[in-house]
Amino acid sequence: MQILPITPQSCEMDIIRRLLSDAGLPTDDLAEPQVLLWGAAHHGQLVGSVGLEHAGRAGLLRSLVVGPAWRGNGLAGRLCHFAFERARDAEMDALYLLTESAAGYFRALGFAEIDRGEAPPEIAATQQFSSLCPGDAAFMRKRL
Known about the structure:
Layout: E1 2-6, H1 12-22, E2 35-42, E3 45-55, E4 58-66, H2 75-89, E5 94-99, H3 103-108, E6 112-113, H4 121-124, H5 127-132, E7 138-143
Parallel strand pairs: 4-5
Antiparallel strand pairs: 1-2, 2-3, 3-4, 5-7, 6-7
């Protein structure tokens, strides 16, 4: 399994959009310059992705998706840990995320649910936070 950077112009972006869309996750702002995406490839086929949105000293973990045939084998965890390392490399202090269905999973990775009012201004200004994710999505933080 390889984890590769994905650029907005790459043909892999369409595959990631389809994976995210099939999982009911937003795709509207993937090409924004502050969003970095990586894809997990098995024998050249993209089977998952993870993204980081830079917002000052904080980041937003996003676009985590694993294709149905690859779920349950630890790939999501590998993608998350890859993103954690990239966030540390970028000297981020904390990662945030929004989720409707995976709060328990992210708790196991060290995230804690917090009130949306505790969002740093840079995170609150992202499209994910302000308009793309529903207001009842769990808002979570992991200190790095």
